[in-house]
Amino acid sequence: MLAHHMLRHAQEIEAAVHNKLLPATFRTSLCSTALTDGVACPLGERCFNAYSLDELRVNAAINLKLLPMDYKLTLCEAYCNSGAHLLVECD
């Protein structure tokens, strides 16, 4: 049921972007406030950035050239070498 809700929400966002109710860059990058401070963004739901990879509009970010064309298409070498889910800076 949650997956269906998330898909419906994603479709609503895409429709709003298509109809120019939201900017094309909506949720195409991660919120720097939440990432650097580790606290909730003061903008909350009004923030146009994503708070997680699940919220990130990857295809839109690729089309806008904010992410490389091969984003998340290959396994991370750090993950392959260690088998652990690490928060590391990958090349």
Characterize the structure shown.
It is a single chain. With 91 residues, the protein is mostly helical. It has one domain (2-82). Helix content is 38%, strand content 0%. The chain has helices spanning 2-18, 32-37, 58-63, 77-82. The longest helix is centred in the N-terminal third of the chain and has 17 residues, at 2-18. The radius of gyration is 15 Å and the shape is globular. 4% of the residues are buried.
Radius of gyration: 15 Å
The overall pLDDT, averaged over residues, is 78
**What is the rounded distance between the termini?**
36 Å
> Structural class of the secondary structure composition?
mainly alpha
| Model regions low in confidence, pLDDT < 50 over at least 5 residues | none
Question: Per the principal axes of the C-alpha atoms, what is the gross shape?
Answer: globular
Helix content: 25-40%
Pattern of helices and strands: HHHH
What's the helix count? 4
Percent of residues in beta strands:
under 5%
